[in-house]
Amino acid sequence: MTLTNASQVPFVDLSSQHQPIQAELMATVQAVLDQGDFILGKALSEFETAFAAACQVEYGIGVACGTDAIALGLQACGIEAGDEVILPANTFVATLIGILRAGAKPILVDCDPTTALIDLAAAEAAITPQTKAIVPVHLYGQMVSPSALRQLAQRHGLIIFEDAAQAHLAEREGDRAGSVGTAAAFSFYPSKNLGALGDGGILVTSTATVAEKARSLRNYGATRKYFHTEAGGTNSRLDTLQAAALQIKLPYLEQWNQARYQAAQYYHQRLQQLEDFGVFPIVNQAGTGHVYHLFVVRLTAVSDRQPLQSALAAQGIQTGIHYPLPCHLQPAFRDLGYSAGEFPQAERLCEEILSLPMYPGLTFAQIDRVVDALQAQLESAKPASRQPLKASP
Length: 393
Ligand SMILES: *Cc1c(COP(=O)(O)O)cnc(C)c1O
Known about the structure:
Blueprint: H1 14-18, H2 22-35, H3 42-54, E1 59-63, H4 66-76, E2 84-88, H5 93-101, E3 105-109, H6 120-125, E4 131-134, H7 146-156, E5 159-163, E6 171-172, E7 175-176, E8 183-187, E9 201-205, H8 208-217, E10 222-224, E11 227-228, H9 240-249, H10 253-271, E12 279-281, E13 295-299, H11 305-314, H12 344-352, E14 353-356, H13 364-380
Parallel strand pairs: 2-3, 2-4, 4-5, 5-8
Antiparallel strand pairs: 1-9, 6-7, 8-9, 10-11, 12-13, 13-14
Helix pairs in contact: 2-9, 3-9, 4-5, 4-8, 10-13
Bound molecules: pyridoxal-5'-phosphate.
Protein name: DegT/DnrJ/EryC1/StrS family aminotransferase
GO molecular function, one term: transaminase activity
Family: Belongs to the DegT/DnrJ/EryC1 family.
């Protein structure tokens, strides 16, 4: 671990990731230029095969973004208008948008406040005869328990469709993210654990019929050129150029995830000293299988995070909030009929969470700076803004 550049702590640093492999990336871009197969080209099918294998599933279908992987993936699994699909209230809105675009009715449920993952008891309570699928979100890089998911799905005959956009190569109970249910969606948004040089996504599945239907849906619903069998089709293909860049980056993913894990371990160790200030990291129940897309803490004794974030930013330390408003309180989705107070754990979590810098290449010295600055800030906070505190649940 070096001390260089420890004074600035960006939230993510993509240039440090790309700099060591720049020559490889440039060469692969040149190869696609030479080949000229920009749409559904050779590098795309090669990457689809490689990524599916990394997820321990049979098929990969590259699409334009993670949101499309959810929408087209659910359609490919047979989800249609009138079907109810369960998802957690505390996710990125893309999960909800994907479900809506598949034509289904989203059913939001609350989360476990210590792990921030979907509360499966709440999910079970929300099941009706119309419920067709559950979309667990492996939030922040930690998988929802595969065994608990499978038991729930089996009891009620539900399709499991994983939103694995934050969980590339994550594992739990011996299962890889993407291999738990009928199909799964990944995003290659640049700052995800595996990111493209732009937008991208993939659907993975081991079910041949689902793969076949998804391939058609992403390509105008065509099964062969100018012969269209799926009315729900659209244009959503992962560019050959993006697939080529992703193919270069894929072999590094495991070591990048390991670097994230080591950074997280050091955060956990250092943050113990901030428990008295009400700082509690989101609990890891997945052990070494957690891929820490984000490192999130709960600030249970801070009533307003904004001054804290500003003070850290003034010292060159960037933080984020993932996400400040749960899905059911977003103005765009008022029509779904939910109201404030409906999902108390998700709502409270949204008010407490703070995402600290996390990326492969983040040094222990930088983590020290973050934790020390956070501590100094909490110590200087006026007692009035701190509520008396009992430890986390
Ligand atoms: C990033 C993300 C998505 C959407 O992926 P895009 O590629 O941005 O469309 C979906 N769900 C979750 C949980 C995400 O983090």
